[in-house]
From TrEMBL:
<feature type="domain" description="Pyruvate carboxyltransferase">
    <location>
        <begin position="7"/>
        <end position="274"/>
    </location>
</feature>
<dbReference type="GO" id="GO:0046951">
    <property type="term" value="P:ketone body biosynthetic process"/>
</dbReference>
<dbReference type="GO" id="GO:0046872">
    <property type="term" value="F:metal ion binding"/>
</dbReference>
<dbReference type="InterPro" id="IPR043594">
    <property type="entry name" value="HMGL"/>
</dbReference>
<dbReference type="InterPro" id="IPR000891">
    <property type="entry name" value="PYR_CT"/>
</dbReference>
<dbReference type="InterPro" id="IPR013785">
    <property type="entry name" value="Aldolase_TIM"/>
</dbReference>
<keyword id="KW-0479">Metal-binding</keyword>
<dbReference type="GO" id="GO:0006552">
    <property type="term" value="P:L-leucine catabolic process"/>
</dbReference>
<comment type="pathway">
    <text>Metabolic intermediate metabolism; (S)-3-hydroxy-3-methylglutaryl-CoA degradation; acetoacetate from (S)-3-hydroxy-3-methylglutaryl-CoA: step 1/1.</text>
</comment>
<comment type="similarity">
    <text>Belongs to the HMG-CoA lyase family.</text>
</comment>
<dbReference type="Pfam" id="PF00682">
    <property type="entry name" value="HMGL-like"/>
</dbReference>
<dbReference type="InterPro" id="IPR000138">
    <property type="entry name" value="HMG_CoA_lyase_AS"/>
</dbReference>
<keyword id="KW-0456">Lyase</keyword>
<protein>
    <recommendedName>
        <fullName>hydroxymethylglutaryl-CoA lyase</fullName>
        <ecNumber>4.1.3.4</ecNumber>
    </recommendedName>
</protein>
<dbReference type="GO" id="GO:0004419">
    <property type="term" value="F:hydroxymethylglutaryl-CoA lyase activity"/>
</dbReference>
Length: 301
């Protein structure tokens, strides 16, 4: 088996990670979190989202966060945008990249962005046209690709169909999201196989929540298939406010530890990353869910 020699980690802690936190996290803490992550070697990072502040109040300060960041040249600062209004916010904040998102479940899409899958794709047409004209790269995410909190099992054909449509709209990456962390390795491989039948394997990314403790095993399954685009969240923060019961994303430090052990390059300094996991966890007043962050806590100097 030949594994990819390198993986691109797309860090989602400051967006997916914090969007579900009940206590408001001040912009300065978000900025420090992002800057520490960049210092640890993260080169692609979601800094927030331009969504309705009524739907996700925690992300209402994304403009402020973007303005306060000391940006590094080699780093992509990305934001999530659900529609043209979000796109305009992203452009005003000088985001390097945007993310459009739909789902493989009608029920979830309604709860999350208040429209059908087809309507969401229509909404993204002007967004992608404007991004193309402005030279802003965009990636796409498909929620509930391995299961839905409302509909249960999701057919792999639906995931493949939505993936193809998003890819045809010009997304440079299509990220398969296990929003509620129900996937297992064989199922993960089946979904990736179905998607890889309709779009190139190189553009497929994975975004797995760890609700059932399967995320790392599923990343390994994806890696074994040649996938080299991983989303993860420092300290295992995260969860979607519109996916009941879902817990955080797989912790970036757990992924990096696994990759280091397998000789797969991520470019990330594990010790700095673990210090960052403790920084945000201390602010939130609870330990990181990451086993690696807890194991290394007293071995950081
Ligand atoms: C999409 C909408 C806005 C539709 O919401 P809607 O109510 O249907 O929108 P609308 O167009 O009818 O507008 C209603 C109000 O929202 C405002 N509005 C409209 N758009 C925006 C915007 N972009 N930014 C700020 N405000 C906005 C608009 O101006 C108006 O304001 P009002 O006149 O009432 O004062 C809403 O459903 C929404 O914001 N949903 C976001 C939900 C969200 O952020 N979910 C979490 C992120 S997705 C996720 O976590 C999954 C992922 C990607 O990580 C992968 C995975 O794990 O599955």
């Amino acid at each position: 088996m030949t594994l990819p020699s390198k993986v691109r980690i797309f860090e989602v802690g400051a967006r997916d990670g914090l969007q579900n936190e009940k206590q408001m996290v001040p912009a300065d803490i978000k900025v420090e979190l992002i800057e520490r992550l960049v210092d640890a070697g993260i080169t692609a990072i979601e800094t927030g989202s331009f969504v309705s502040p009524k739907w996700v109040p925690q992300m209402a300060d994304t403009t402020d966060v973007m303005a306060k960041l000391s940006r590094q040249e080699n780093v992509t600062y990305a934001v999530l945008t659900p529609n043209m209004k979000g796109y305009e916010g992203a452009i005003a904040a000088k985001a390097d990249e945007i993310e459009i998102f739909s789902a493989a479940s009608e029920a979830f899409n309604q709860k999350n962005i208040n429209c059908t899958i087809a309507e969401s794709l229509e909404r993204f047409e002007p967004v992608t046209e404007a991004a193309k004209a402005a030279g802003i790269p965009y990636r796409a995410s498909i929620s509930c690709a391995l299961g839905c909190p409302f509909e249960g099992d999701v057919a792999v054909d639906v995931v493949a169909d939505v993936s193809k449509k998003l890819y045809d709209m010009g997304a440079y990456e299509v990220s398969i999201a296990d929003t509620i962390g129900v996937g297992t390795p064989i199922r993960t491989k089946k979904v990736i196989e179905a998607v890889a039948n309709v779009i190139p394997l190189e553009v497929i990314g994975v975004h797995f929540h760890d609700t059932y403790g399967q995320a790392l095993a599923n990343y390994l399954a994806a890696l074994e298939m040649g996938i080299s685009r991983f989303d993860s969240s420092v300290a295992g923060l995260g969860g979607c406010p519109y996916a009941p019961g879902a817990t955080g994303n797989v912790a970036t430090e757990d992924v990096v530890y696994m990759l280091d052990g397998m000789g797969v390059e991520s470019g990330i300094d594990l010790k700095k990353l673990v210090k960052t996991a403790w920084f945000i966890s201390n602010f939130l007043g609870r330990p990181p869910v990451s086993s690696v962050a807890r194991a290394l806590k007293n071995k950081l100097n």
